[in-house]
Amino acid sequence: MPAHARRYPSPTRVAAMMSDRRTLLKGMLGVAGLALTPELLAACGSSGGGSSASTVTFGCNGSDAVPKAAFAAMTSAFGKSSGETVKTNTVDHDTFQNNITSYLQGTPDDVFTWFAGYRMQFFAGKGLAHEIDDVWNQIGGNFTDAIKALAKGTDGHYYLVPLYNYPWAVFYRKSLFAAKGYQVPTNWDGFLALAGQMKKDGLIPFSLGYGQGDSWAPLGTFDFINLRINGYDFHKSLMGGKESWTDARVKDVFTHWSQLVPFYQQGAAGRKWQDAAQSLINKETGMYVLGSFVSQQFTNAADLADLDFFLFPEINPVYGTESIEAPTDGLMMCARPKNESGSAKFLEFVGSAQAENDYLNIDTSELAVNKLADTSKYSDLRKKCVQAIAQAKNVTQFADRDSDPGFISNVVEPAVSTWLGAPATTDSVLNQIQSQKSQYFQS
Amino acid sequence: MTAIPSTHRSRRRRHVRRFGTTDKLVLALMVGLPSLVVAVFVLLPALGSVLLSFTDWDGIGVNTIKFIGIQNYVEIFTNYPAFWPAVEHNLIWLGFFVLIPTPFGILLAYLLDKKIRFSRVYQTAIFLPMVISLAVVGFIWEIIYDPDNGLLNDLFGTNKQGHYIDWLGNPHLNLWAALVAASWRHVGYIMILYLAGLKGFDSTLREAAQIDGANEWQAFTRVTFPALKPINIIVLVITTIESLRAFDIVYVLGGNNGTKPGMELLSLLITNNILGESSHIGYGSALAVVLLVVSLAGIITFLVQNFRKEARP
After folding, report:
1. What was the ipTM of the complex prediction?
2. A269 at the B interface (CB within 8 A)?
3. Rounded distance, CA A390 to CA A395, Å?
4. Mean per-residue pLDDT over chain B, rounded
5. Three-class secondary structure of residue A286 per DSSP
6. B263 with B175: CB under 8 angstroms?
């Protein structure tokens, strides 16, 4: 489910649009309520009675039909094995996100769904989440080090149990590459040469669409170029607001990126990612830098079997292709849960292979993060995705998850949209980002 | 003001004295309750916004509210690339609405008022967009403007590499695209309002003018239009309000994720900064105050002028 996998895309457009509006109104009410009634801010769940000690409340943003059923399967399996009851409170995905601040300060559920990385660390740092080191003592062996790093707050404690993720890469159709004799490029020059060859052959080298709400889409390419040139640590500190955007290293990223711009599909600023994916299906375009959720558009089984990907090619040999973008979702515990021991037991269960299997048997658009989870039923593409993430030395979460989401959506995304229309303006665009940065990052 | 004769006034005062206790209670309730509701739901939050606009607050915990004086305003005016375009776009929106769809709606109403055949059908067709939610209107136009499969690009053959017209993406085009979509809806609204006015208009006035030798244009500009002053005021107020609160259609066409270059509007900037998980409530409130001042300035001037005219003998 795109709405699930990414922050913004939604499968059914009409429904999404209607809910956008509803969401917004609810969000506004939420903000108004927050401003008017400060006493609401007082405590996390201390006032609520009604639920006995053996009940764990679970705030869940899996509001689409498939994730909802998948979460239900997982919670009922936990209920059977533990004797605890999980009371799930499902909230519309976007509403949940927009109201998270007031939700966590009001009467949140004991356990809630959230995103790994900076966005988890932000709320952990504000004291709105409970550390779960004890849970991790039990489940630590089930995860790779790169995944463990995603579950830790800046204070070194664990705050999240990851459930699933998906990778970003360069997607293409095997049959097209075979027919034209294209080879998967291994470095930047090869990448540009391949794009040039495609253009010569009358293809559009890269699908691109960042219209309507999809202005996050180009940032995948930005992140990858940055990771390949400047490495994981620089990515983290740039996204964390600790580096200057006018730094020569950032300029270098944009210089490299501008070499791709002539190869992009035109009309991209008004196109949704789904339609850009359609061009890849129709073999009008050759490649698409996107998350593996692109496969959801490949509704024809033969087309889907033809879909493949390669890792974004190496630029600087020092960093090779050691990092991959794989946004990860998981579960957290609120700061003052009503049923702490039950919540811990539930989170421990979520960190088990059984929970992963229960969930992913139903929601097959996501990938297991648990090393022990059963991937035998996965398609070749999904197996390759799991492998790509498992091999990576560093797993990043995508720009809007590794950084302050407001900074990315209000500052970086409009700036990048402007830049893609006029790549000669790199300096002024970067100055613009840099000058607004201080509003979002205090330190 | 002096025009009101004093006898008139004293008579009115005697009139008030005749109210019994029940009447007074009912009156107090009828005036008091709405006033209370307005105070609690409009005035207090507005005041709260003004106060918050001088602070820095991420919405987490009341104790983190930090008073920072006018810094938000300084930032907005000097260091927010989306702000001045947003002001400009709001003004363009207002100008466009006053100049194009509003007169067009009036023209349609005037034509439909002349007992032409199928008038009801036309009325319904033109008013239909008004019945549809703005989000759906946005969805319809999104399909029309789609770069690959949209109606417009299909018709013009501009959906191929090298020939694209990016209606919603091109920063020089997308505001106008949104304005056309919004106008499509606004025209019907104005038409119905004006039609209602025309139905109540005493047509003998116009006939008299025509007997006096006035042509159609003169009859409209010199007789009908001035006689429909109350409706004109409503139409103008509605057009102004619709322009200042323009939001939904751009929210749909431009996306709910940050602002799209070329489609910035004050209302969008406010929600972008306040909603979501990293909210800047102080900053967003300062933007809201700017919009409030702009709206109040317009509305107050307008109302003062009108009441002054009304009060004249």
Report:
1. 0.82
2. yes
3. 9
4. 86
5. strand
6. yes
Q: What would the pLDDT profile of A401-420 be if each residue is shown by its tens digit?
A: 999 888 998 999 999 999 99
Q: What residue in B sits closest to A264 (Cα-Cα)?
A: B161
For B278, nearest residue in chain A (alpha carbons): A406
Q: What six digits make up the tokens of B305?
A: 């002028």
Mean per-residue pLDDT over chain A, rounded: 87
* Average pLDDT estimate for B127-150: 89
Contact predicate A11/A3, CB 8 Å: yes
Q: Do B257 and A214 touch (CB under 8 A)?
A: yes
Tell me which chain B residue has its CA closest to the CA of residue A27: B275
β-pair partners for A368 = A164
Our CA-based measurement puts residue B166 at a distance from the nearest CA of chain A, in whole angstroms, of 5
Residue type, A181: G
Answer yes or no: are the C-beta atoms of B56 and B68 closer than 8 Å. Answer: yes
pTM above 0.90, yes or no: no
Which two tokens mark A415? Answer: 């700036």
Q: Which residue from A17, A101, A439 is facing B277, i.e. has the nearest CB?
A: A101
Nearest CA to A411 out of A388, A384, A435, A443 is that of A435
Show which of residues 87-146 on chain B sit within 8 Å of chain A, judged by CB atoms: 133-136, 138-139, 142, 145-146
First to last CA, chain B: 8
Summarize pLDDT for B102-112 with one digit per residue, the tens: 999 999 999 99
Specify the pairing of strand A85-90 against strand A111-115.
unpaired
> Would you state the torsion angle of the CA atoms of residues A162, A168, A173, A178, taken in this order, to the nearest 10 degrees?
-110
